[in-house]
């Protein structure tokens, strides 16, 4: 495979900067969140946005669809939503006197599926997304139907502590490249929102990329060079999430899967392109690691009692695992001699 050239990466970087600037006019004061969303899209991944109602999660996804000029359908997840309401159903039709079932595609057949408040639907309905998110196709009554390309699921959810929510199954969480936390705004940002927004109106935003440009950019991300030392760093981070493999893993019951390692590699290459570099670095991995790993580890009960969070444990793992193989982990360094 031919690796990306500096000229190609520089040209793509200009488009990505334009995307970022446009989205920052949709959601004020969330620059890092927007960078991570764009990183996830460039890595061809699905993204889970978690935060309290009213913080702009849905507006961010709608703004992204406008800037990328992609077909987008919104699915409002509710407790009474059925799997067929998402994937589509076979409908009995009569043609020339003959009756047969004809598949009618559901709202999942789109480029960006906005799964709004995904954790308000039942586990049965949530599981209808499993095949679509992994294999980009839907199977109904034994017949498979390919989804449009590109295909992304951008889901929003409220914190699980709120009433009327269902935890997402681990198999589905693992299919999300990123889990991003949408935090509340500070006073300056709130003042900016009050002065530049009206309740019930959407901000105007222009298209930045067409389908051809997006396809070329996604293909270019795959050609970003991933040095072997960076690949080794990714492998050691994921291995350190498993019990017995690091000090921080004492708080973990189940660690991250091989899909997490692949996600780290893809996201690191996407961030390298966003920074107009032809190769991924250790810093790229460190930047995306919390978003890739926080939803892929399951903590022990005693860790929760002690008040530890997934973010705390991932942070400890990144501090413990050295970038260079063979270097002494921070938690194992001895005190300097007198």
From TrEMBL:
Gene3D superfamilies hit by this protein: Magnesium chelatase subunit I, C-Terminal domain, P-loop containing nucleotide triphosphate hydrolases
GO molecular function, one term: ATP binding
InterPro entries: AAA+_ATPase, ATPase_AAA-3, CbbQ/NirQ/NorQ/GpvN, ChlI/MoxR_AAA_lid, ClpA/B, P-loop_NTPase
Domain AAA+ ATPase span(s) in chain numbering: 43-186
SUPFAM superfamilies: P-loop containing nucleoside triphosphate hydrolases
PANTHER family documented for this protein: MAGNESIUM-CHELATASE SUBUNIT CHLD, MOXR FAMILY PROTEIN
Protein name: AAA family ATPase
Protein species of origin: Haloferula rosea
